[in-house]
Amino acid sequence: MVENTFETNLSHRQGADSLIDSKYYDDDGRPKRTGGVWITSSHIITAVIGSGVVSLAWSIAQMGWVAGIVVMLFFSVVTWYTSLILADCYRTGDPITGPRNYTFMNAVSSILGGWNVTWCGIAQYSNLFGTAIGYTIGASISMMAIKRSNCFHDSKGADPCHVSANPFMIGFGIVQIFFSQIPNIHEIWWLSIVAAIMSYTYSTIALGLGIAKVAENRTFKGTLTGVSFGDVRKVWGIFQGLGNIAFAYSFSMILIEIQPNFFIYRKHELIILTTQDTIKSPPSEVKTIKKATNISILATTFFYLLCGCSGYAAFGDTVPGNVLTGLGFTNPYWLIDIGNAAIAIHLVGGYQVFVQPLFAFVEKEASKKWPKIDNKTFKIPIPGLSPYNLNLFRLVWRTVFVITTTVISMLIPFFNDVLGLIGALGFWPLTVYFPVEMYILQMKIPKWSRKWVFLQILSVLCLIVSAVATVGSVVGIILDLKDYKPFSVGS
């Protein structure tokens, strides 16, 4: 991923012994790490809980009470296990003195190497591009929900309140064009802090409203087998639900990169913001990561089950794809508006956190191929501030990128379908395959041994899950497109 642009060079200055003091610097010459189990756990929990939480109730509805909960526990256990084995890859070779791997990509490069690095890059950058589309859709739906909620409240339900998503997507795109001109991720750390607060806000609101609705109904809705279509759509719905849950759970690749220089808030964002890891030693980083993983997975699974089950219990098989935007909840409308505003603000920051590494990668490769593009920079004076360096290539290419993601979002504005597709495509390679393959090489596990066979079976099983989830999400998009007219007024 993005190289550390401001890491210390002390480790490369072996002659400067006076600067390398074990009281202040670790064995690699970086400033002393101070993170412990609870700090690490808090970063993981903050990173995992995000926009995927609002689709969990819908995912459970596709499978029913039994299968829905079992699938959530399956993803929880798989993510927990792959996180534990990935912890053993923090250092290459010796777990105490071996060279540190500062990023997930760094670990893949140093342990696996070869074509795996290219594949890992493709998987990660494709995931970033897809997430930019998903976030554009999610933000626009939340903004639509605010307008519809107030319309329903003012008309007391008499007005159908048809609202088009297109103006909101265009507005979101304009905002992203502006933020995208910020040179790099390190200059928008404050967006991550705001987004983290927003993430907790709407997640808590969704949970609270679900519990309140169940109390109001005085019964638990839902069925053991979930939504009943009576045809193949039931199968596609289950497959798509798998992708949605995978999107909410996939986070094992963040463990290597946990660090405190920036407040990091969800899933793959941790990969993007990382500049140096934070876990102190002794005890060994591996032990700290594993303890933090146990705490974090337990807490996250408990929260996810509460959110998903409370939403399904509140609405049963009619639960909307997004519990805060589907008008499942109508009162108190002001609280719902706050929840949706929090989602929109979160996704503004989340979009940038995802796309900035993609920007950096493309611009780095472009500057290698066309060195002169870096010279096309102009200083724009800003009263009271430092001059802004406007790079023409950055201006044009980043603007084109945002416009592209916005247009694609307008063509396929299907929140659950897109989230499911992103989760499905990223789950197996990033959460399972690379951690498993790195662990096998790192621990020198003999081929055809019991553990090797177990790990391969786990990898194949998760590949199948990712494959069917991908198919379900693609079919969902195709089916939705049959009844959707691009650039039309939504319902």
UniProtKB/TrEMBL annotation:
Topology class, membrane: Multi-pass membrane protein
- Any one GO molecular-function label of the UniProt entry: symporter activity
Has the keyword Cytoplasm been applied to this entry?
A: no
Query: What UniProt keywords apply to this chain's record, in alphabetical order?
Result: Amino-acid transport, Auxin signaling pathway, Cell membrane, Membrane, Symport, Transmembrane, Transmembrane helix, Transport
UniProt-annotated location(s): Cell membrane; Endomembrane system
**What's one Pfam family here?**
Aa_trans
Task: Name the Gene Ontology biological process terms.
Answer: amino acid transport; auxin-activated signaling pathway
- Name the GO cellular-component terms: endomembrane system; plasma membrane
Give all residue intervals belonging to the Amino acid transporter transmembrane domain.
34-260, 271-478
Q: Which residues cross the membrane?
A: 37-58, 64-90, 102-122, 128-146, 188-215, 235-256, 295-315, 335-362, 395-415, 421-441, 453-479
State the source organism's domain of life.
Answer: Eukaryota
Q: Does the keyword Transferase apply?
A: no
Similarity comment text for this entry: Belongs to the amino acid/polyamine transporter 2 family. Amino acid/auxin permease (AAAP) (TC 2.A.18.1) subfamily.
| PANTHER family in UniProt | OS05G0424000 PROTEIN-RELATED
Protein's job? Carrier protein involved in proton-driven auxin influx. Mediates the formation of auxin gradient from developing leaves (site of auxin biosynthesis) to tips by contributing to the loading of auxin in vascular tissues and facilitating acropetal (base to tip) auxin transport within inner tissues of the root apex, and basipetal (tip to base) auxin transport within outer tissues of the root apex. May be involved in lateral roots and nodules formation.
By what name is this protein known?
Answer: Amino acid transporter transmembrane domain-containing protein
Which source organism does the UniProt entry give? Lupinus angustifolius (Narrow-leaved blue lupine)
Q: What is the lineage of its organism?
A: Eukaryota, Viridiplantae, Streptophyta, Embryophyta, Tracheophyta
